[in-house]
Amino acid sequence: KNVRFTKENQISSIFFSIKIAGNKTESKRFGIIVSKRIDKRAVIRNKIKRQIRRCIEENEKYLLVGKDLLIITRPGIKDIETREICESVKKLFKKIK
Q1: Which residues are bridge partners to 11 per DSSP?
Q2: Fewer CB within 10 Å, N side or C side of the chain?
Q3: Residue 57: alpha-carbon gap to chain centroid
């Protein structure tokens, strides 16, 4: 089933932007995009995805069910620690409510 993300339902930080859509289910679904502009090496891109997934798991409690989120990373994310990514994810999840 296709999900439409619109510009109106978007929230951003310096490390990434999150697009939000309702999914009419009792679950929360996430997609993470780390483009080749961030880093050409797949190893680094996958590491960033793992960091973000870990942060999502830690902060999932701040989100309501029935949401689809698409997380699109920005170039600055490559040089920061997981802890900082988690702080940013937590702030954005609290805003989404």
Answers
A1: 18
A2: N
A3: 11
3-12 CB burial, b ≥16 within 10 A, e <16: eebeeebeee
77: which 2 tokens?
């994310």
Is residue 96 pLDDT above 70, yes or no? yes
Structure tokens at 30: 């996430």
User: At residue 41, what are phi and psi to the nearest 5 degrees?
Assistant: -80, 125
The Cβ of residue 29 has, within 10 Å, a number of other Cβ atoms equal to 13
Backbone angles phi, psi at 73, to 5 degrees: -80, 160
Interval 10-54: pLDDT, tens: 998 899 999 998 888 888 999 999 999 999 999 999 999 999 999
